[in-house]
Design a protein that fits this description.
Length: 633
């Protein structure tokens, strides 16, 4: 029996419906469209002449397969998909759930098949949400698509050559013929995913495996960072553990050389020494590959550390009603950005408004509070937009009714804002209130983690020197935020960016000239390597955001020094009221106070404050020397 006949025999025995979906070749015999529009009955013994898929549900909408599609179109994606495969297979084995692992095509990617005994959609939705929060390469929509969800079965041919190949290390395909996995089994798998769900605040994350108590880092780290660094073999999710190690190092001010030193021996950084072998175990990485991957992930961790420094603390959720409202508003906001492009992308000011609104949504979602403090300089640093522009955006958003001001700025306390319910106007419900189905708490937290990741990716991608006004500008920023490493048609990119197609095409062409976007026969994508800094240097804008951030830090220190001066003039000791923004802590104690007491503020002979001289001292970092001189005198 030929391989095609074997694949067709398996398909006929497992297909939930009486037909399969097949591709259609064009007149010259070539398949150019990645779609399966034609129905082909399974009654005959002759297989289709083109590749085919089977539906995951029967005609009643009950699922007979859970298909985990781990996408890997690029070498970088393949590595992530292989890591995700290791996590998924460990979870299924621990839950004693039968499964089949296939290499979906010669170009990369994996399909993991789980035979189900007729499971309802609600269970699949929970599984998809929990898995999505843990497996970055997963096509989560396929797990719960009861209308058009379909996948090529094991052994079937691929349009570009080769076939879906069953891999060693899992069950044989015969387990697909006799499905036994129930909804209860899937709920256990869902619970296992939720144990690995990333914490909103990395400081609250726990190691996913035993910790080597004898391991010591060569530079200081937060307690949570040391725990992840010492996690033996990276725990159950080496990729996530390795990234948390890098994030802790970035927050602590480590350099790339420090990270490279730690990656040689730290148990938690196993991901940067070895790769997951799809058939089981781990294989050493080539030195060049390991160095390149570590450098790319380190750049990503440094970008995320900017948001982490200005992130609010997460509040304990006793009543999930408020968090449910926040999640609904954020989901509706992201949808509005693409559904109402005339409002959010018409002008440069509109683009800034949507970015500031994205940051406020991120702060609200992360803290779990509808009311969030937003200091202008903190918003400016996190978004890459000047503080004066942030101020104007907040005023416009407030005037238009998208946000409300709950409290005005007062001394060291920033203004407090709230996203209104204008985004998520609920539809009128007909019937008794108890018929309203709310998200279960666990599912709510799954969605929250996914939304946070989407918002953070958007902010990190756009916060760069190259997208400042002197660089490529905010329109290019919005398009770049909408690109991925997968190819998308220009129309899809325009829809994702919420831009008219003409402006999106113009921005794509401009970024292509600067090597930030690549055009392929099937669409547009980002470069696999981040060229933003290289382009910023060519445009002469490299370092703009860093200088702006330093300016804001100096202004905060100057303001705190001035507040301390006013306290002294009022006859109180500096220790009576410490400006909340103070970052300088002095070494000595005298009659003026302890380490929180600033030196005397520069004043002219008539007693007027000399702010310019004070700023010069701040910029040169001379406050400690002034304090020492004051004590010596």
């Amino acid at each position: 029996m030929s391989s095609s006949d074997t694949a067709w025999a398996l398909t006929r025995s497992i297909a939930p419906r009486r037909y399969v979906n097949r591709m259609i070749a064009e007149a010259d015999g070539t398949i150019r469209s990645n779609s399966y529009p034609s129905k082909f009955p399974t009654a005959g013994h002759t297989p289709p002449a083109t590749p085919w898929t089977i539906d995951l549900t029967d005609l009643d909408g009950r699922f007979w397969f859970a298909a985990f599609d781990l996408d890997a179109k690029t070498p970088e994606d393949f590595d992530q998909a292989a890591e995700d495969l290791g996590v998924l297979v460990r979870i299924l084995r621990d839950a004693q759930v039968p499964h089949v692992v296939c290499r979906s095509s010669p170009t990369g990617g994996f399909h993991v098949w789980v035979p189900l005994a007729g499971v309802d959609k609600a269970t699949m939705v929970q599984l998809a949400g929990a898995a999505r929060a843990v497996l970055p390469s997963l096509d989560h929509g396929l797990l719960c698509n009861d209308r058009t969800g379909a996948v090529r079965p094991p052994l079937t041919p691929h349009a570009r050559g080769g076939a879906s190949e069953v891999m060693a290390g899992a069950d044989d395909v015969d387990v697909l013929r006799t499905p036994t996995v129930t909804a209860g089994d899937l709920l256990r798998v869902t619970a296992a995913f939720r144990e690995l769900r990333p914490a909103v605040d990395p400081a609250d994350s726990s190691p996913t495996g035993p910790v080597d108590a004898h391991h010591r880092v060569h530079r200081s780290l937060p307690a949570w960072g040391e725990a992840h660094m010492g996690t033996v073999a990276g725990g159950r999710d080496p990729s996530r553990t390795g990234y948390l190690c890098l994030l802790a190092a970035a927050v602590s001010g480590w350099t790339l050389a420090d990270v490279e030193h730690a990656a040689k021996t730290a148990p938690g950084m196993e991901h940067y020494r070895t790769r997951n072998r799809p058939t089981g175990g781990r294989a050493p990485r080539a030195a060049a590959e390991a160095a390149a991957r570590l450098e790319r992930q380190w750049a990503k961790a440094q970008e995320r550390a900017v948001l982490y420094r200005y992130a609010p603390e997460e509040r304990q959720q006793r009543d999930l009603t408020q968090l449910t409202g926040i999640v609904d508003v954020v989901e509706a906001m992201l949808q509005a950005f693409t559904a109402s492009p005339g409002r959010w992308t018409r002008t440069e000011a509109d683009l800034h408004d949507s970015t500031v609104l994205t940051y406020l949504a991120w702060v609200s979602l992360r803290s779990g509070s509808r009311d969030v403090g937003a200091a202008l300089r903190s918003v400016a640093i996190a978004t890459g937009i000047p503080s004066s522009t942030v101020d104007r955006s907040l005023r416009r958003l407030h005037a238009a009714g998208w946000i409300t001001r709950r409290r005005h700025a007062d001394g060291p306390n920033a203004a407090v804002w709230r996203l209104t319910d204008r985004f998520s106007t609920p539809s009128e419900h007909v019937g008794p209130p108890h018929d309203v189905t709310a998200r279960p708490p666990a599912e709510l937290f799954d969605v929250r983690v996914t939304l946070l990741d989407a918002l953070e990716d958007r902010l990190d991608a756009g916060r760069h020197d190259v997208f400042t006004r002197a660089g490529l500008g905010p329109t290019a920023r919005r398009v770049y935020e909408s690109l991925t490493t997968d190819e998308h048609a220009p129309e899809v990119v325009a829809d994702r960016a919420g831009l008219p197609r003409g402006r999106a095409r113009a921005a794509l062409a401009r970024m292509r000239r600067w090597t930030l976007a690549i055009a392929t026969p099937t669409g547009w994508r980002r470069r696999f390597q981040d060229f933003r800094t290289h382009v910023a240097k060519q445009l002469g804008v490299d370092g703009i955001l860093l200088r702006r951030e330093q300016q804001y830090v100096d202004e905060r220190d100057l303001w705190a020094w001035w507040q301390n001066h006013l306290i002294r003039k009022a006859g109180r000791r500096g220790r009576d009221r410490i400006p909340t923004t103070q970052v300088v802590m002095f070494r000595s104690v005298d009659d003026h106070g302890g380490p929180e007491a600033y030196p005397a503020y520069p004043c002219s002979s008539d007693g007027r404050a000399d702010h310019r001289q004070a700023m010069r001292f701040v910029r040169r970092g001379l406050l400690q020397e002034l304090r020492d001189f004051e004590l010596a005198a």
